[in-house]
# Entry
Amino acid sequence: MDLPSSQSTSDSSEPDPNLPSQVDLRHYHQNGFDKGRPGWIILLWWLLQGTLFPLTPHSFHAPRCFLLRLFGAKIGKGVVIRPTARFTYPWKISIGNYSWVGDDVVFYSLDTIEVGEHCVISQKSYLCTGSHDIHDPAFGLKLGAIMIGNGAWIATDCFIAPNIKIGANAVIGARSSVFRSMPAQYICWGSPCMPRTPRQILHQ
# Structure
C-alpha cells in the first residue's frame, strides 16, 4: 500500500548517525570553573561519602549533617538527610532549618544550591547546576545556581535544571522536568514543568 505524501516526505529525512561529528571533545574546556577546594579535599569528601556516609543508620541524621558541615555545607537545625543522598561539592550547598532530603537525591553542586527552610526534596530527584554549551564545538561547561524557596516540595524523581528558582511554598509534581523558574505558592508539574493551580494550605 502506498504511503501518504506527508509520510513519504518524513521518511526521506531519516536521521543519519554516520554524519561526521561537529563536536571535538579533545578540546573540552571548563574555563572559569572553580571547584572551591583543593583536589585532595575533594577526593577525601568523595571517599567519605562513598563509605562512611551511607553506613550511618537510616534515621540518624546528625552524623551526616556533621560530615556535610565539616566540609563546608551550611546545614540548619532539624535537617533530615537520608544516607543515600549525594552531594558533589558540599561547600556550595546550604539547606535551611527543618528541611528534608530523601533517598537517592543528587545535589550536583558545580554551582551553588540553596534550599530554604521546611523544604522537602523527595527521593531520586536530581538538582543539576552544570550543563554544556551546545553551540560550542568544544562542549564547554556552563553553570547555573539553583534556589529552592521556603516551604517548597520537590516531589519524587524530579529534574531541576541550572539557573532555576522555585518560589516559596511551590510544589513540583512527581517526575517533572523543570527548565524555567516556577512561581511561589503554585502546584506545578509536567515535562516541561508548568504552573497549574495555586497551592492552598489550610491552617487549622
Remarks:
- The chain has one domain: 34-198.
- The two ends are 67 Å apart (CA to CA).
- The helical segments are 5-11, 39-50, 52-55, 62-70.
- The first strand starts at residue 74 and ends at 75.
